[in-house]
């Protein structure tokens, strides 16, 4: 199963440009799970605006949307800064965690207190899991990053073990799950398995929560190290993880196919619009219009300033390109407190449908209902 999981991931990298842009929106469910329980959750459009707000002034972005956008940022950091480092250090993990929780310094740094999962907020007597005492955490993290920096196992095995061990150490007082899931992407990218694509593996693990918890519980065994029982416990977790990777690859490939079909529709609409306007030639590959189209899955909400900043074109060229895409019904205009935004609604809707599908244990909401709160149908 491990080799099957590796082959399924490698198969995504042939043409993964769209997946690299869109999968960060799939990952947003990790950051908004608690707000959805309370009935408060940003739409994918709000999240896109919050992400844009990191570079430009964007009015009226909700706090929940900023939280989700920030989580996407740490996933990207896990795939860039930690991948580019010659060796990952514990400080990299501390910095990644701090970036996840801006404005919450009470949670920064490696914990110095006991924490636990489940049960009472006041004592660990009824907890589902009690991590190691705080005094052991620094040495355990040193051991973890030493393993992360090596290549003694296949990428899938290494990613699964790094995630399980990080969650078992539980080194922070908050945000352990999100950091631990980001480290899956760190390992897979450092090992060259996901050079472009970002797997929605954490969403699949969330959907298959009972298997996920059972796998982690098996991993947290008390058998003698090196014994047959200890190997069996670790193998049980890795089977769960490998199945999640295979499913995530299949769903990511499905999303890629949908995006490819959407691109074909865009090309037809744009060609028809240009013909109606008397343009005989196709859009040049280096034009602002073509550049915007290529990046739309990754930047489905943008402004004229966005186009100028990303593509290095003039204000006039950006305006003309955006107007052409609006005329072709690829972009839709939205004015917000004096700022004009352009949305690729079909991309936002596609991400919403994908998130709904990934919340079903059969990955089809017609066959089984979502197992967690999901956005409304577009």
TrEMBL record:
PROSITE patterns: FIDO (PS51459). It comes from the Bacteria. It holds the Pfam family Fic. Residues 88-240 form the Fido domain. Signal peptide: none annotated. SUPFAM superfamilies: Fic-like (SSF140931). This is Fic family protein. It comes from Brooklawnia cerclae.
């Amino acid at each position: 199963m491990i080799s099957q999981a590796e082959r399924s991931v490698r198969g995504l990298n042939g043409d993964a440009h769209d997946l690299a842009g869109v999968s960060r929106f799939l990952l947003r469910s990790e950051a908004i799970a608690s707000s959805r329980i309370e009935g408060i959750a940003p739409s994918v459009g709000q999240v896109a605006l919050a992400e844009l707000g990191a570079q430009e002034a964007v009015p009226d972005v909700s706090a929940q949307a900023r939280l989700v956008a920030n989580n996407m940022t740490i996933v990207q950091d896990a795939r860039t800064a930690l991948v580019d480092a010659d060796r990952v250090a514990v400080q990299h993990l501390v910095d990644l965690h701090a970036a996840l929780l801006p404005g919450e310094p009470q949670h920064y740094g490696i914990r110095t207190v006991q924490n636990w999962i489940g049960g009472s907020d006041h004592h660990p007597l009824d907890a589902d899991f009690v991590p190691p005492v705080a005094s052991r955490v620094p040495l355990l993290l040193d051991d973890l990053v030493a393993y992360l920096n090596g290549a003694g196992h296949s990428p899938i095995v290494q990613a699964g073990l790094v995630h399980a061990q990080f969650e078992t150490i539980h080194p922070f007082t908050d945000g352990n799950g999100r950091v631990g899931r980001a480290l899956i992407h760190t390992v897979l990218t450092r090992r060259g398995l996901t050079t472009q694509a970002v797997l929605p593996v954490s969403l699949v693990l969330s959907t298959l929560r009972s298997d996920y918890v059972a796998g982690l519980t098996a991993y947290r065994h008390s058998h003698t190290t090196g014994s047959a029982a200890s190997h069996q416990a670790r193998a049980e977790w890795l089977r769960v993880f490998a199945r999640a990777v295979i499913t995530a690859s299949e769903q990511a490939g499905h999303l890629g196919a949908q995006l490819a079909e959407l691109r074909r529709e865009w090309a037809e609409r744009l060609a028809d619009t240009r013909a109606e306007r008397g343009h005989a030639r196709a859009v040049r590959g280096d034009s602002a219009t073509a550049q915007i189209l290529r990046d739309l899955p990754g930047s489905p909400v943008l402004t004229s300033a966005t186009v100028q900043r990303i593509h290095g074109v003039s204000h006039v060229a950006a305006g003309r390109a955006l107007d052409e895409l609006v005329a072709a019904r690829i972009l839709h205009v939205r004015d917000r407190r004096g700022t004009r935004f352009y949305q690729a609604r079909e991309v936002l809707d596609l991400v919403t449908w994908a998130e709904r599908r990934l919340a079903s244990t059969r990955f089809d909401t017609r066959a089984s209902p979502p197992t967690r709160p999901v956005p409304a149908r577009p």
